[in-house]
Amino acid sequence: MRYSFTSKNIAVADTLKEKTEQKLNRLKKLLPEDAEVFVTFSKVRHEHKVEVSIPVNRRLLRAEVTANEITACLDQVVDVLEKQIVKYKGRLRERKRRDMSVHIEELPLLEEHDDDSAEIEIYRTKRFDVKPMDVQEAVMEMELLDHSFFVFRNEATDEMSVVYKRHDGKYGLIEPQ
Question: Do 24 and 52 meet the contact criterion of CB atoms below 8 Å apart?
Fold first, then answer.
């Protein structure tokens, strides 16, 4: 595995990089040999944040953890990524079983986990009228509803768009291409 480290508002010592590589090597047996791992360390106020992104087979495995101790962040990030990989491989395995004619490049197989290989269940369906509005109005509507995202028809482009609230308190906009 190849590692790429970046940092924001924090100095990253070589010992921290080595410790990170050591912890992420737990995932080595689950990932392809040529996997690239992007690690970002940041510090906001008194909390440390570790973000890890691993592109694999046209998918992106990503984990982001914030905690007071950077070592706690590293442990949690590895746990989150390990669960994602097991779940992803379970889905690939199920898809391959359903259609044997499709050849999927699969990661090395792990032991079965019953709770991670369950089908996705839609718990609730909501229907609502989509009205044209500008982005500012959509953000206000989202805040009024106290939701973390809001789907609307952008009156400037006449396309469906989504505004969402980010972890840092700022807003994001998703537009179709």
Answer: yes
